[in-house]
Amino acid sequence: MARRYDSRTTIFSPEGRLYQIEYAMEAISHAGIVIGVLSKDGVVLAAEKKVTGKLLDMSGAKGQSYGGSGEKIFLLNSNVIGGVAGITADANSLINYARQAAQRHLYMYNEDIPVELLAQRLCDLKQGYTQYGGLRPFGVSLLYAGYDPHYQFQLYHSDPSGNYSGWKATCIGANNGTATSLLKQDYKEDISVADAIELVLKVMSKTMDSTTLGSEKRAYYLALRFVFRKRGAAQIADRETTVEFATLTLDAEKKPKAKIYNPAEIDALLHKHGLAKKDEEGSVAAPIPSDQTV
């Protein structure tokens, strides 16, 4: 029965469902997880990117302040950073649209675009792609972490239907149910940025598919990658995961300051919070220079 109503985004089923939107959301559930936590003095975003091949070059652009060649966390404006989960090509299109919308607002009003207004602009675009024939929904969800002078720090989430909502802590992507449960248990209203970073790292370590602790896996750190090798008796299988991390806080002049962490800083965070993977002998694996092979 569903096949009669899922060929076009403009056809409702007898139950009032748009199947194409549900299929788009299903694509998001298989993407790497993105977690956002709102604190009293900032916002924290962390994302998991699953590397599909060991020959993929992860060094990318040299602009570390913009996340290098990151595909999960982007700087949308000086006061907004975004995390995406879903189809990468769709995400790139929306990211470019968001940046242009933010710059148009800055040009017209000489001020940074409010976070909610930016979310509305993207959601208007996404909603239009569910209403006209010949179009398909964007297969991507976004988290918007930003600062507004009137409403302070904010965290929003939008989905392929064009719906958006504000959150204190939320996540999108694979294993989002488990991550949400952990966030509900440990989130506190007056949490600081430092505590939010610790909470996000804790949730990431428990929800990422490639970070299951066990004596058969040894973890190393390489650039932005956590490379996990599962050593079996008959074969060696490589699984790689990229972790991207960012915060938005205020500087000494009370202006928003977006920071996308570089490899060394991510490594330092892991060691600081005791989350660096230990080898079989119990010692913490030291960072491996990017010019070495693992």
Question: Brief overview, please?
Answer:
The protein is α+β, with helices and mostly antiparallel strands. 28% of the residues lie in helices and 29% in strands.
Care to describe what's here?
With 294 residues, the protein is an alpha+beta fold. It has a single domain (2-58, 67-272), classed as Aminohydrolase, N-terminal nucleophile (Ntn) domain (Glutamine Phosphoribosylpyrophosphate, subunit 1, domain 1), CATH 3.60.20.10. The chain is 28% helix and 29% strand. It is built from 6 helices and 12 strands. Strands 1, 2, 8, 9, 10, 11 and 12 form a 7-stranded antiparallel sheet that branches. It is globular and about 55 Å long. The model is unreliable at 61-69, 211-240 and 279-294 (pLDDT under 50).
Poorly predicted ranges (pLDDT <50, ≥5 residues)? 61-69, 211-240, 279-294
Q: List the helices and strands in order.
A: HEEEEHHEEEEHHEEEEH
**CATH level 1 class label:** Alpha Beta
C-alpha geometry: globular
Q: What's the number of domains?
A: 1
**CATH homologous superfamily heading:** Aminohydrolase, N-terminal nucleophile (Ntn) domain
Average residue-wise pLDDT: 79
For the report, how would you describe the main beta sheet? Answer: 7 strands, antiparallel
User: Which structural category fits the helices and strands?
Assistant: alpha+beta
- N- and C-termini, Cα separation: 51 Å
Query: CATH topology, which one?
Result: Glutamine Phosphoribosylpyrophosphate, subunit 1, domain 1
**Total helical segments:** 6
> Oligomeric status of the shown chains?
single chain
Helicity range: 25-40%
Strand content: 25-35%
